[in-house]
Structure formats: C-alpha cells, structure tokens
Amino acid sequence: PIINEPGSGVRAINATGSIFATFNSAYTIDSSWEWKKWNDKHNAYHFVTENRDKTHGDDASASFILALNDQGNVAGGYSNKTFMIQVPTIWKWQSGKWSEPIELPYDESSEETSKGEMRGLNGSGTQAVGNINVLPNRRVQHYESDYNTNASVWTEENGNWSLMRLSSETSSANAVNNKGDIVAGYDTVSAGGNYIATIWRFDGTTWSSMMIDDKRHYSEVFALNNAGDVAGGSTHYRPAIWSGNNYQKTELKGVDGNITQGEVRALSADGKIAGGKSKVGENYRATIWSGNDWKAYDLGTFKKDGVGNSLVTAMNDDGTIVGGEATFEDGESYAALWFIQYDENNKPTIDLLTNE
Fold first, then answer.
1. What is the dihedral of CA 273, 278, 284, 288, to 10 degrees?
2. pTM of structure
3. How far apart are CA 88 and CA 133, in angstroms?
4. What is the distance between the alpha carbons of residues 167 and 173, in angstroms, rounded to a whole number?
5. Which of 22, 60, 289, 326 could form a disulfide bond with 83, CB atoms 3.0-4.6 angstroms apart?
6. pLDDT at 261 over 90
7. Mean confidence (pLDDT) of the chain
8. What angle do CA 14, 265, 116 make, to 5 degrees?
9. How far is the C-alpha of 338 from the C-alpha of 128, rounded, in Å?
C-alpha cells in the first residue's frame, strides 16, 4: 500500500504518472506525491487553519483533491471554507509547494453547507468542471434532499475564474476533454428524475447538451479520453463505454465474460483502455478493460488469498500506471498503484505495488 493506514486511496494521476493525489480518512487533508521522490509528499493547504473551531478537530479543515491536470501542477476538488461551508477549490503548485486554496465561484443564494465540488480538469488546468448547489427547482420533486446540484464549468482567464451553469436540472459534470470543449456527466429528466449520461459541447459561443443513454436507465459518465469522443461510466449499474460521434453504447462484460455490475472510472488518453470495477463473486474488483473486444482483467487485491474488494479511480495517459484502492490482509482498504504492461493486442501484465 502507498499509505500504511486503512481508509486511504488514490484519486488522481497526472498524464505521465509521475504525480498522483491520495486521500487518507485518518487525516482530512489530501496530498500529492512525486513518484521520482517516493517520500516527497505535499499536503494541500486549506482555508481553515489557526482560526478554525478547535472543538471540531481536524474535520474543520478538510480538503479533497479529485483531479490533476496533465502536468500535475494544478489540482482541484473541494475544501472547507469554514467548519460549516464546503466550496469548490483549486490549488496550484508554486515554488515547491501547493498554493493557498483558490475558491471557485458558486451560487451565493444556496442555503446548503456544501456549495459544490470540482470534479475534473482539462489538460492545461485552465478549465474545471463539477457542480454547484442552488436553490431548488420546486417543479421537480427531490427525494434525497431539497436542493439542486447543477453541472457547471469554471474557466480561468487572466487569473480569474468564471462560472457557467450547464443545466438548471439536478446534474453534475464529472469529466472534461483536454481541449475543454466537451464535458460529460449526468443530467436529469424532469418528468422521471432519472440520472442520464450526458455530453455537453461548446461550439465557441454556446453549450449544447446531448443525453447519450436510454432515459429509462440510471446512467452516468465519469471519464473522457483526451479527444472527448470516448466516454466511460455506468448504465443501469453496469460498466459502459460510449464512443464515436454519436456516442454509441457498449456494455462491458465481467472477467468471466458475462454481464456484470460495475462502472468505468478512468480512461487512457486514446480511449482504448478503461479502468473501474466489476463484480467478481461477492466482491467488486479493480478491473481493466482493453483490446478490440474490451476484454476484462481482474487487478486483484493485497490479500494473499486473493479475496476482498478493489477499485480503479485514475490512470495515466497510456494506462500503464493505475491508481485506486484495494483490500489488505487486515480487511481494510488501502491506497494502491498497479503497474501494467501491454502486448500488441493490449493484453495486460499486471504488477500490484507493495511495500516489500
């Protein structure tokens, strides 16, 4: 494991795989690591420091990294602005350390303590995507909580970040292509309230949306390739790929070749390798899909008997360094990196990082 404490995982990896971001439930501050310097760990600064409410402990200063740009010098996620308020956040690598958190714009009228999350970054780190919480649309019935989460895009120009909402319905933007003109996530249908995998495109002037899955299904996109013409996620709780100009859907099979539950969470730059999780027996296992037939490969766990759960959440551009979490001998999940080599048919040979 990368972190020798339970409840840890890898959330993001840069293009070359030289920098990755981790979380640790024992500490509420995310960190980035430089692969070439194994002990070179850098905590992300947070808004609440000396003036935080001491009675609430470290929970008052939580920060979470969800994405890195290609170079690994821009990170994004969310952070507690005060003990009660969480805001979408950007950090920049400057002079050998992470900058103070940069608060992204959000809806000031929202009464929710969570103002939103930044979930994805384009290659240059000048465009971020995610969601903001807004006052509820009373025409839509919400069952979990009384607020709308709107898919949003933030764009940096001359050091300032501006906000654009992509939908007024309950929605989220989870991924963006390198250029920044294609965004993916989910949107809802007012009549049914279903989450539907959605693509938003920018034509240079306006954003347009396109639902790419059956409205009867619960579906969501979590990852895009660099060009934005391959999307990965889930449909009806099954792992799926949407590809081509019209985003034709392919439901991915499990390691036994049969229909499986799971989801795609990461894609290689060319969109030919997917990572996520699929059901193997009673467990969800970190899975790589590759090759022309999208064959599934189980990445395993840290446990010597091979059982337990694992999950892929990030990969570098060529899919050779994959990050996530996996069950260890004590039954807890720990941050994990897999190193993968592919043959001419994209069949992987897998090595799971250990401390041995």
1. -20
2. 0.92
3. 10
4. 10
5. 60
6. yes
7. 88
8. 80
9. 27
**Residue 84 banded pLDDT, cuts 50, 70, 90:** confident
Q: Name the β-bridge partners of 356.
A: none
One-letter identity of residue 342: Y
The number of C-alpha atoms within 13 Å of 155 and in the hemisphere containing its C-beta is: 9
Contact 170, 188 (CB under 8 A): yes
Mean pLDDT on 250-276: 98
**Token digits of residue 63:** 């920060």
Find residue 187's DSSP bridge partners: 196
Strands 333-342 and 321-327: antiparallel
Six-digit token string for 316: 């570098």
Neighbours of 178 (CB within 10 A): 21
Q: How far apart are CA 233 and CA 184, in angstroms?
A: 10
pLDDT tens-digit readout, 264-294: 999 999 999 999 999 999 999 999 999 999 9
Distances (CA, A) of 203 to 86, 182, 200, 206, 231: 32, 9, 10, 6, 19
For 127-145, the pLDDT digits (tens) are: 999 999 997 654 444 444 4
Report the length, in residues, of the chain. 356
Task: Look up residue 60 and give its DSSP letter.
Answer: G
Alpha-carbon distance 301 to 108, whole Å? 44
| Two tokens, residue 234 | 């889930």
Is residue 345 classed as helix, strand or coil in its secondary structure? coil
Query: Which residues make Cβ contacts (< 8 Å) with residue 330, sequence separation at least 6?
Result: 6
Mean pLDDT value of segment 93-97: 92
Beta pairing partners, 127: 155
Characterize the bridge pairing of strands 310-315 and 295-298.
Answer: unpaired
